[in-house]
Specification:
Radius of gyration: 21 Å
Order of helices and strands: HHHHHHEHEHEEHHEHEEEH
Shape: globular
Largest sheet: 8 strands, mixed
Structural class: alpha/beta
Distance between the termini: 46 Å
Length: 322
Amino acid sequence: MNVINQMTDLLDDMAMAFYHSLVIEKPKISYLTCLSKTLNSFYDEDILEDEKLLEEDLEIINKSYEEISNITINEEEMRKALLLLEIKAYKHSNLSLDNITPDGVGIIFTFLIDLQKNIKFNNMLDITVGSGNLSMVISNYSQQDFNLIGIENDEDLCEYLVIKANFLEKNFDIRLQDCLLYNFNNIDCIVGDLPSYEYINEGYSSPLYDAGVREFQYLAIERHMFTGHDDTMAYYLVNNDFFTLKDNEIFKKEFSKFAYFKAIIVLPPNFSQGLPKMILVVAKRSENMNKKVETNIFTMPNYHETDKWQNTLRNIKAYLEE
C-alpha cells in the first residue's frame, strides 16, 4: 500500500475512534476537532485518559500507534496524508473544498516566489491561511528558507493548524485574528487564497470601506498594500471575475495609488472546485514610478499539454526576471 494512503487510513481510524467516543456527550463535535486530538495525542499522552474514551476505541488508537511507529514517511508525504483528512474534515463541517488551496496551485505560487531573486526571504505571511496547505506546499518546495506566519479567524482551524505545524515540526506562527485589522512590518512575501464575500464590520475603516466597498478580496489587497517593505511582493489567488465585481472601479483607482499588478496568471478551469481562478502578482509603486505600468497576462494551458505548459512558464520567468 502507498505510504501516504496507509498513513491516511491509520490516522483516520484514530480520528474516528475519538469521534465515536466523544460524540456521545458532544453530538455536535466535528471531525476536525477529532483530527486535532488525534495529532495532539502523539505529544500529549494524557489526552487519551482525559477524554475518557471507550475501551474499544482505545484499542483502535493503540493499535494504530503501533502500526504508525513502523512506517517511514517524510514531511511532504505526511502533508499529503493530512490533506486527504482535511478534505474529509471540511466536508463534515460543510466548509467549501474550494477553501483548500490545491497542491498544483501551491507549486505555481512557489515558482513565482522563487523568481524574486533580489530579496533574501525571512518571513512569509499568509493572510488567509485556512488549513495551511498553500503555505506548507510553498515551504516544502521553495528554494527560499523563511519563517511562516499565518492569519486565520476561525478558531477551530487555528487550533488544528497549530497542532498540525507541531506534528510536522514546522516553524509556523499562527495568529487567530481578522486579517483586515493589522499590518505587519517585517514581511518579505505575502500570499493569500482570497475568498469572495461581503465583509461587514461596523468598527472597520479604510478608504475603500468608507467609500462603500464591501468585497473582501478588494479590502484584503488594500489593507496589505502597506504590509512589509518597499520590495515586498504579494501573490493572491482570486476568482476570475475579480475585475468585474461591484465597485471594481473604486478599487482600481485606490489600488493604483500605491501598487500595481505586475502579472496576472490565469489558471486552467480544472485547477479549482468552483469558479476558475487566477493569480495576481502585486508589486508596490515607488515614489518616482510612472502611473502607467505594464501588466502582462499569462494563460496557463491544460497541465497535460506539457510543451505549452513549459513554454508558458518560461515566458513568465523571462518576464518576471527582467
